[in-house]
Amino acid sequence: MNTQPQPSGQSTWSQRFESALHPAIARFNASIGFDIQLIEYDLTGSQAHAQMLAHTGIIAPAEGETLVQGLEQIRQEYREGKFTPGIEAEDIHFAVERRLTELVGDVGKKLHTARSRNDQVGTDTRLYLRDQIQQIRTQLRDFQTALLTLAEQNVETLIPGYTHLQRAQPLSLAHHLLAYVEMTQRDWERLGEIYQRVNVSPLGSGALAGTTFPIDRHYTAQLLNFGGVYANSLDGVSDRDFAIEFLCAASLIMVHLSRMSEEVILWASEEFRFVTLKDSCSTGSSIMPQKKNPDVPELVRGKTGRVFGHLQGMLVLMKGLPLAYNKDLQEDKEALFDAVITVQSCLEAMTILLQEGMEFRRDRLLAAVSEDFSNATDVADYLAAKGVPFREAYNLVGKVVKTSLAQDKLLKDLTLDEWQSLHPAFEADIYAAIAPQQVVAARNSFGGTGFDQVRQALATAKARMN
Ligand code: ARG
């Protein structure tokens, strides 16, 4: 970013200004280093504005056509790598206007009639975010598809379920995976709702107060496929609620991805050994030859922090900001861009991880659920179903667990005599009732982990995808 500003010979500002910006201030002020990312949206927005100017008779039809063509030519130049504006342009809006005037002559100077950079940058940012939201929603669908594929293969695979990170009750692995499908479903829906509020046109708000020209804001909104227009010009140029809402949604996506990341990191550890990481998604250590590290979920967990930071930054940016546009608002872009690219890259990496980066170790999972006391609730439920008050049954089973632990036994190792000496209600079917597969199958309440419920949930989730 330390490029010296080029003396342009051409002054940006009106003749009120007598001398040029201090070079360091020019660098400090410029946003071209990052808002170049908005170029395609800036061109599209300007083309709509030019068409509107011609449509309303503010400029001649031929002039409108010239502007639209010239802007299209800049698009081509940019795509071919030939348009690389430097710091002298200050920002993408000036860069485009200047190049346009070089290309089409004085008529280029008419483009900015009845417009300000304030409504222009707001338009660009919304057009950009609309596209990014659509892409993230598609990526959420891909992530869900990967989860559903794994879930389908693992309805009857069991995995220990935890509360307080202590073994609680066994689960269908599919049920566990489907929890993430639900979380990301809310993410997908939330982004759809936010999209509605991103998709509102501020174009034509002018600098802050509207314009003296007979513009048609609905015409540009329609050309740009906006769902509506800002009703108040001050709000139009200074609202960044849509960016904050997006950053909230992005933060929640990262919360969900980071929770899954943490689980995968645990599962891949020597202590759990529930998954094996494939070489395509893990790295080694430069010194410890035995190591295989879960870099993908670790990076996702780590990147979560910066997205939260951008949300906080944007809230503070907006707090107490007087109406209407203030240059502070130029600071919205890097935060937004970084949050977008972070969420997109994390979703892509996690989807690949699910698709081909890890393998569940069914042998280890089965051993895990067979060798613990996570069926203790089922013993209490067994007694309760036979009329023993649950709290009484609960206390009794606690005692059984205690003595079994002391004898290094599991519940399945108790003899029928031992069971019956604990309570006469125990019968031979206690063994079937506490077998892990049955423990899971029996939790058939709506939304529970019972296999029938899981199959239903899978079908619902799949149907929802279309
Ligand atoms: N580069 C500016 C931004 O990103 C464009 C708007 C500038 N408006 C102004 N009144 N200086 O916010």
Q: How are the strands ordered across the major sheet? A: 1-2
CATH superfamily of the largest domain: Fumarase/aspartase (Central domain)
Percentage of helical residues?
55-70%
Count of DSSP H/I helices = 19
CATH names the topology of the largest domain as: Fumarase C, Chain A, domain 2
CATH class of the largest domain: Mainly Alpha
CATH architecture of the largest domain: Up-down Bundle
Provide the list of bound ligands, each named once. Answer: arginine
Our count of domains comes out at 3
Please summarize the sheet with the most strands: 2 strands, antiparallel
Q: How many strands appear in the DSSP assignment?
A: 6
- Give unreliable regions as ranges: 1-9
General shape: elongated
Estimated structural class: mainly alpha
Mean pLDDT: 95
Strand content range: under 5%
**End-to-end C-alpha gap:** 46 Å
Radius of gyration: 31 Å
Written overview of the protein:
- This protein has 466 residues and is mainly alpha-helical.
- The protein has three domains: 23-113, Orthogonal Bundle (Fumarase C, Chain B, domain 1), CATH 1.10.275.10; 118-159 and 173-360, Fumarase C, Chain A, domain 2; 368-465, Ribonucleotide Reductase Protein R1, domain 1 (Orthogonal Bundle).
- Helices cover 60% and strands 5% of the residues.
- The chain contains 19 helices and six strands.
- It has helices spanning 23-29, 32-35, 39-55, 61-79, 92-104, 117-153, 173-198, 217-223, 233-238, 241-267, 295-318, 332-357, 362-370, 376-385, 390-406, 416-422, 430-433, 436-441, 451-464, and strands at 158-163, 166-172, 200-201, 228-229, 275-277, 358-360.
- The protein has a two-stranded antiparallel ribbon. A two-stranded parallel sheet has the order 3-4. A two-stranded antiparallel sheet has the order 5-6.
- Helix 3 (39-55) runs antiparallel to helix 4 (61-79), helix 7 packs antiparallel against helix 10 and helix 14 (376-385) runs antiparallel to helix 15.
- Residues 1-9 have low confidence and may be disordered.
